[in-house]
Amino acid sequence: MPHYATLPRKLLVVRVIFPNRKPAMSIRRRLLRSRALRRSEVIGICRFSYPALGGFQRVHDSIEDRSAFLYADARLDERFRLFEAFTLPSLRAQTDQDFKFLIVIGENFPADRLAQLRALTDDIPQVVIQAHPPKRHRTVMAEAINSIRQKHRYSLQFRLDDDDAVGVGFVAALRRSLRQCHGVFPENHLMAIDFVNGYNARAGLTGIEAEASQRLFVSAGLAIAFRPGSHLTVMNFGHHEVWRHMPVLTRLDADMWIRGANDHNDSGEDIARHVVPLTPEEEAKFGQAFGVSADAVRAIWRGGPGSG
User: pLDDT, tens digit, for every residue of 247-271?
Assistant: First the structure.
């Protein structure tokens, strides 16, 4: 043991209490941080056939051409079926109901379809529908998020396509991750939370076909936590590039996302290549994990959107 008695008293105190460390956080700052963590907000966002300037793989010559493509009856029927089958049930089933979910549409969204959208989401108080004029995709989505954001709270944000779903514990797991890893924030403004376990799935007349998948940085399984006061949003970062800009917490929780496959997948990726029909036992598991009912899926496809 070192013989500290030979050291000057002042030097001894400094070395023992603060060995190469920053001064301790004040009690007031600790209380403020603890309060902010407890009052964190969760915001999800979905682009529902919004005619953005850019943001699509398919190229159109004008906004009118893009709107005509997006609002074609056959395409909208499919989007509504998938939204009703996958996305909305998973939001209703969240174990933590303290969140907001933005649905961004165009100002020229057909009136009858807007009524249909309101009817489907009327029983989900977390849903906020916003209509916007054509703008750059990431710009308008960030503006939408910031319009409902609470400045002095930690903000946990995620994005879904209109054929995606999240596990019933997704919102709760986001808040739990923030509490567990809040120590990254003194030196970072943001942190990504990446759930790597989920399913690729296709819905249809016979029910659900799916394939288990383990993959990094799937947009449906990714969220970003922002420190209070930040003006950045989840839309400032491509989901495959977040690791270049921030610390990432990789979570191995089971059954945390569904990535929907359909005839209009914009990614150009064949994610339904290996899906197989779910067994009755697997259908029950899907219901428990995501709030997604195979019987409701079959009813929706038999009777059209709104039949589930």
Answer: 999 999 999 999 998 766 655 457 7
Fold that domain 26-303 belongs to in CATH: Spore Coat Polysaccharide Biosynthesis Protein SpsA; Chain A (3.90.550)
Which range (40-49, 113-122, 179-188, 244-253) has the least confidence? 179-188
Q: pLDDT digits over 33-91, tens only?
A: 666 677 899 999 999 999 987 655 556 557 888 899 999 999 999 999 999 999 999 99
What tokens does 115 get?
A: 């009524």
| Other beta carbons within 10 Å of 304 | 13
What are 170-173's contacts with CB under 8 Å, separation 24+? 170/90, 170/94, 170/195, 170/256, 170/257, 171/42, 171/94, 171/95, 171/96, 171/97, 171/98, 171/99, 172/94, 172/95, 172/96, 173/251, 173/253, 173/256
How do the domains of the chain map onto residue ranges?
Answer: 26-303
182 pLDDT tier (thresholds 50, 70, 90): confident
- Can you give the chain as a three-state secondary structure string? CCCHHHCCHHHHHHHHHCCCCCCCCCHHHHHHHHHHHHCCEEEEEEECCCCCECCCCCCCCCHHHHHHHHCCHHHHHHHHHHHHHHHHHHHHCCCCCCCEEEEEEECCCCHHHHHHHHHHHCCCCCEEEEEECCCEHHHHHHHHHHHHCCCCCCEEEEEECCCCEECCCHHHHHHHHHHHCHHHCCCCCEEEEEECEEEEEEEECCEEEEEEEECCCCHHHEEEEECCCCCCCHHHCCCCCHHHCCCEEEECCCCCEEEECCCCCCCCCCCCCCCEECCHHHHHHHHHHHCCCHHHHHHHHHHCCCCC
